[in-house]
Design a protein that fits this description.
The chain has 9 helices and no strands. By secondary structure, it is an all-alpha fold.
Length: 119
């Protein structure tokens, strides 16, 4: 299947994300799949990137990972409370995969909706 080949090219894709994106792409033709993968691939974040920015919160500024996933309010809270006294930063480091997956689910749904409306 052509869509699987394109999905494997995404950096750091997890099996859960792979299954979710395949479900979102159901009913798309090959051209729409190519457009979706190009658009989705440019907007998604890999779990490794989220972990890297979370770990930077221990050294530079806490909360960068929250800004990356679109949680501006939590990001501001983390900045002013030093990552909720580093407890929140530790929790985010442990849960970095779920943070990335939740963000990527939203991005995939938005991208699929845009591709389907552009017919």
């Amino acid at each position: 299947m052509i869509s699987s080949d394109f999905l494997y090219s995404l950096k750091g894709i997890t099996p859960e994300e792979f299954a979710y994106v395949q479900k979102v792409m159901e009913g798309m033709n090959d051209e729409q799949v190519r457009q979706f993968i190009a658009f989705y691939g440019s907007k998604r974040h890999s779990p490794t990137d989220i972990l890297l920015f979370t770990l930077l919160g221990f050294v530079i500024v806490a909360g960068v990972q929250r800004f990356m996933v679109g949680q501006i309010g939590m990001g501001i809270l983390y900045v002013f409370t030093f990552g909720l006294c580093f407890v929140g930063t530790i929790v985010d480091a442990i849960n970095h995969k779920s943070l990335a997956f939740e963000f990527n689910q939203k991005v995939a749904a938005e991208c699929a909706q845009m591709i389907r409306f552009s017919r």
